[in-house]
Amino acid sequence: MVTRRLRDIGEHGWIARLLRTVPSGPRVLVGPGDDAAAVRAPRGAVLLTTDTLVQGTHFQLGWETDARLGQRALRINLSDVAAMGGRPLAALVALEAPANLPVAVLDGVMRGMIAEARRHGVDVVGGNLAAAPRLAITVTLVGEAIGPPVTRAGARAGDDVWVTGTLGGAGAAVRALLAGHSARRPPVPVRLGAARLLAPLAHAMIDVSDGLVQDLGHVCDASGVAAEVEVDRMPVAPACRRALGGDAAAFAATAGEDYELLLVVPPRHERRLQRLVPRLGCALTRIGRIVPVAPRSPTVRLGDDGGRPVRFGRSGFDHFRPR
Description:
24% strand, CATH 3.30.1330.10
């Protein structure tokens, strides 16, 4: 069987093939194939986010199927819209790829992405394909706020810190893959429904993409507060505990790629939160509290159940600092 590569069919040939497979929903006025897409404007605030997956930085071909890679590229953007308590509407997809990349790889990426988009009512309305030394997938997602957008800036001293799902599973898998071992990255969770239920109770919310410590630090910096996290309360993924044993909690606090929701809620709403749990589709765990800023003290402090500080290395992922 002859493997067709992008240089064999060219940019416009591949795009023409793709356009025949892209569905168009009722909100799309002008879909892919024109100079720009046109969609019906939402009623509330417009949410805009974008993120990129780069080969060699975020993934290696073979870590997962091409379709799962496309699904991941869309889901990490869905996570940003979820963190604002919003609903996704439409996506633009920019692809960079080397000329010798098999056409089947890009076909698989887009097949997975389009299927995932349909599951969440998202229209893929356009994008771009350009030559580059390695594969990169950039998704720009447009959404709408259901109520007032939940930002990072509303945390107050005395609030509780909660997190959905589990932490550390994705980081442990990437750690194994980078070491040359066989591992399966868990899929990026989609917390859109959970976020819409939780948003009305939250003073602040963020998705855990670069590590809990780092992302909670963003909330604290934006809000002018600090946070204390009890590592023994953290919902560490079983796979992470098996791989790292006693170091699992500190690793999970900084590993990243969890894409769970981290939310800050006043204690008076705890009973309402607990009543919501059966409808969330995931666990919800209280892991700490928001405190006033203390001089010469870290913004985010980890402690064990005895109050003793837990040391950790880096606070989370940074593109320009080594792992």
